[in-house]
Specification:
- The protein is an all-alpha fold.
- It is built from two helices and no strands.
- The protein is 82% helix and 0% strand.
- Helix 1 crosses helix 2.
- Keywords: Membrane, Transmembrane, Transmembrane helix.
Length: 73
């Protein structure tokens, strides 16, 4: 079984301080984990999108310069 990361432990401690009850439910623990993975998913997806856009723009630039050179010859 994996150890709980410090960031997740801190988030759970903050939730525990804000609670009026004396226990953290399993659902709270799951919500922290799912929000953690959601943020990572969005971050990875946006980085991949930016990378693909960068590649497309560079390929367009290369093709454009190739076509211009063809017509100049």
């Amino acid at each position: 079984m994996e150890a709980i990361p410090a960031s997740k432990r801190d988030m759970l401690a903050q939730k525990a301080e804000q609670r009026t009850t004396s226990a953290i439910t399993f659902q709270d623990f799951v919500n922290v984990v799912s929000s953690f993975f959601y943020v990572h998913f969005i971050l990875i997806f946006s980085c991949m999108y930016t990378f693909v856009l960068f590649i497309k723009l560079n390929l367009f630039k290369v093709r454009s310069s190739y076509l211009l050179n063809m017509f100049e010859s």
